[in-house]
Amino acid sequence: MQDLDFTGKVALVTGAASGIGRGAALAFAARGACVVLADIATEAGQAVVDEIVAAGGQAVFVRTDVASAANVEAAVATAVARYGRLDCAFNNAGVEEEHHRLADSDEALYDRMMAINVKGVWLCMKHEIAQMLRQGGGTIVNTASVAGLVGAPKHAIYAASKHAVVGLTKSAAIEYGKKGIRVNSVCPGVIRTAMLERALEREPGWEAALVGLHPIGRLGQVGDVVSAVLWLCSDASAFVTGHQLAVDGAMTVV
Ligand SMILES: NC(=O)c1ccc[n+]([C@@H]2O[C@H](COP(=O)([O-])OP(=O)(O)OC[C@H]3O[C@@H](n4cnc5c(N)ncnc54)[C@H](O)[C@@H]3O)[C@@H](O)[C@H]2O)c1
C-alpha cells in the first residue's frame, strides 16, 4: 500500500467517523487524495477531518445518513463542488445486528438493517455512478462482509443485507465496466473496531471463539481491510471488477 499514490484524486468515504471508514479516510488523505467524509456522527467525523488537515491533507466532513437520498446526493455534490470530481468511493457505512435467531427478530430491526446496509449502498452507488459517468470513470468499493459470502447464524438479517451488497456490486460491475467504472466489495472477517467492542460488551468471553474462526490465528485490524480497499481503488487493480475480496484470514475457506 505504501507506493499507492492518490495525488489529485477525490475520494468519498461513508461511515468515515469510526473503524474501517476512519482508517480508509486517513489512508486516502495520507496518499494525496482530497477526502469527503460522510457519517451520522458529526463530532467524531469532524475530528477525523481535523486530524487529516493537521497532517497537511485535504478533507471535509458532510453529515450524512446513508439511508437518506437527499443526504447522499448532497455528499456526492459536495465532493464535486469542493474538489471538482469523484474518483474513488468507499461505501462502508453499516450497522450490525445483535444476536437473534431468525424467528426472534422483528420488523423494525429488518427495516433498519436494510435501510442502512442495503439502501444506503444503493443510494451511494446511484449518485456516485451518475457523477463518474459524467467525468468518464471511477472506482467504487462497497463493504460487504464474510456474512455476504456465507450464512451467519443468529445474524440472518445482517447476512441478507451483506449478500445484497454483493448483488449490487456484481450487477453494477457488469453494467458499467465499459464506462470505465470498476465496482468491487471487501468482505472482512472479524475486525477490531467499535463494532466488535459493542459485540464483546453484549457477550463477554466471545473473543476467543471469534479468533478460533480465523485459520490465520488472529482477528483482523483496520489496516488489513484498508490496504485491500486502497488497492481496489487504485490503478494497480485495473483488471479487477465485480470481485468480492475476502479479507478474513481464511475464515470462509474452511
Ligand atoms: N468490524 C467487523 O468485524 C466487520 C466485519 C465485517 C464487515 N464489517 C462492516 O464494516 C463496515 C464498517 O464497520 P466498522 O467495524 O468500522 O464499524 P464502526 O461502528 O466502527 O463504524 C461504522 C460507522 O458507520 C457510521 N454509520 C452508522 N449508520 C450510519 C448511517 N445511517 N449513515 C452514515 N453513517 C452511518 C457510524 O456512525 C460509524 O462511524 C460496516 O459496513 C460493517 O458492517 C465490519
Task: List key phrases describing it.
alpha/beta; Rossmann fold; 254 residues; binds nicotinamide-adenine-dinucleotide; single chain; 8 helices
**How many H/I helices?**
8
Query: From the coordinates shown, what is the CATH architecture?
Result: 3-Layer(aba) Sandwich
**Share of helix among residues?**
40-55%
- Which strands sit side by side, in order, in the main sheet? 3-2-1-4-5-6-7
Structure, explained:
- The chain is α/β, with parallel strands linked by helices and 254 residues long.
- It has a single domain, classed as Rossmann fold.
- The protein contains 8 helices and 7 strands.
- The two termini are 27 Å apart.
Give a short summary of the structure.
The chain is an alpha/beta fold and 254 residues long.
